[in-house]
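Hi Y.,

Following your request, here is the sequence exactly as I used it, all 201 residues.
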Amino acid sequence: MRLTERERRVNLARMIASLMVACAVLASPALAGAPAGTSAHARASAPARASAPAIRPATAADLVALAKRPGATATLIDVWATWCIPCRQEFPDLLRLERAYRPRGLRFVLVSTDFDAATARRFLARRGVTFASYLKQGDDQSFINGLDPRWSGAQPAVFVYDRAGRLVRFWEGEADYARFEQAVLEAMGHGQDLEVKESKP
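Below is the corresponding structure, written out as tokens. Let me know if you'd prefer a different format.
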């Protein structure tokens, strides 16, 4: 069927309008699923956001059993909380240690004492933590005594175990990378019988 000149013009106008709408969608970051103001290059090169880590409930007995589980050359348990300023300050050194020594068999365990898992999960996700972590379960005194009766409950608190699950280092208070590393290397001492020691900050 032959189209009249008027019909051809209407069809052409519709095609042009459709093309303009499509171009607007592709050019708009908000409509394309990216934050407003984000360039096409930035959207293409931006890394995928890390997923929030799993937070599992754990009693002191669960953590001690984890430290004794075969398969690790050493286990470091860090008890922390988002509201604890020293905990937050030492976190970069702890994560640096985890990256350096997990390939060498370190079992790295973070235990939050926050009241809810969502608060801890947000904190960890913002710092790029993707491995599973834990949330304290049970009353405070049982948890403290279950890990070490010498512990006052102050945070942060670090417990370092050797490959057999024997506690070789324990301290309260903020530490730096050198102290974390020294404790882990001692615990990795090739199966030697290591005396349990308590360190003071």
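The chain has two domains: 5-45, 55-198.

Thanks again,
Q.
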